[in-house]
Write a structure and sequence with these properties.
By secondary structure, this protein is mainly α. Helices cover 51% and strands 0% of the residues. It contains three helices and no strands. Helix 1 packs antiparallel against helix 2. The chain is globular and about 30 Å long.
Length: 86
């Protein structure tokens, strides 16, 4: 597992209050029990951990490249932001 993926899964697991082994790329944030406040807190943690800026319209995939429809698409968006920063 890549360092980004490991940290990202840790953030999601912490916000969902579940074990990191229960996080998988096909799960939606709803599947994992994240409510809207937990999603916002996860986004803040992602921004702080990876020193990136998540677009304000991330909750609307048609307007943003940052797709939060499931864990895998969200991870891909984080990896892209990190790569662009490098």
């Amino acid at each position: 597992m890549s360092d980004i993926k490991e940290k990202f899964f840790g953030i999601i697991a912490e916000q969902a209050m579940i074990d990191v082994s229960d996080v998988n790329e096909t799960a939606t944030l709803d599947d994992l029990g994240l409510d809207s406040l937990a999603v916002v807190e996860a986004v803040f943690a992602i921004e702080e951990t990876f020193d990136v800026q998540v677009p304000f319209n991330a909750n609307n995939p048609s307007e943003s490249e940052f797709d939060i429809s499931n864990v895998g698409t969200m991870l891909a968006a984080v990896e892209k932001l990190v790569a662009e920063k490098a």
